[in-house]
Design a protein that fits this description.
Shape: globular
Number of strands: 4
Helix content: 25-40%
Strand content: 15-25%
Structural class: alpha/beta
Distance between the termini: 23 Å
Number of helices: 3
Strand order of the largest sheet: 3-2-1-4
C-alpha cells in the first residue's frame, strides 16, 4: 500500500483542496454532498457506478469510483485513483455495510 501515499513535499501545490474517500455512497449520498458543498474533492465509492452518475447529477467535485470493500484489488484501485487525481487523501468515511 505504500506506493499509494506521497510525502507531503511531493503533493502538488496546485490542488490545495482536501480530499475525502467515502465508501458505500449508494446509501450515503448525503455525506458526499456535505463534503462537496464545503469545498472538498470527493471520491464517492460504490459497487454500482452507473447509478452514481444519476445520483450526483454531474457534480464536478464528486468522482464516482467502483469499490467493493470485500475485494482487495478494488480497494487498491480506488485509493490509487484518488491519490493520482487529487494527490492525497485527507479523510476516509466508511459508510459501507
Amino acid at each position: 500500500m505504500g506506493a499509494f501515499w506521497r510525502k507531503k513535499s511531493e503533493v502538488g501545490k496546485e490542488n490545495s483542496l482536501k480530499t475525502v474517500l467515502i465508501t458505500g455512497s449508494s446509501s450515503g449520498i448525503e455525506t458526499a454532498i456535505y463534503f462537496s458543498e464545503r469545498g472538498w474533492n470527493v471520491v464517492a465509492t460504490r459497487r454500482d457506478i452507473e447509478k452514481g452518475k444519476e445520483t450526483f447529477g454531474g457534480n464536478k467535485s464528486i468522482d464516482i469510483v467502483l469499490l467493493d470493500i470485500l475485494d482487495v484489488d478494488s480497494i487498491r484501485n480506488a485509493i490509487q485513483y484518488a491519490v493520482e487525481k487529487h494527490g492525497k487523501i485527507d479523510a476516509v468515511v466508511n459508510n459501507a455495510g
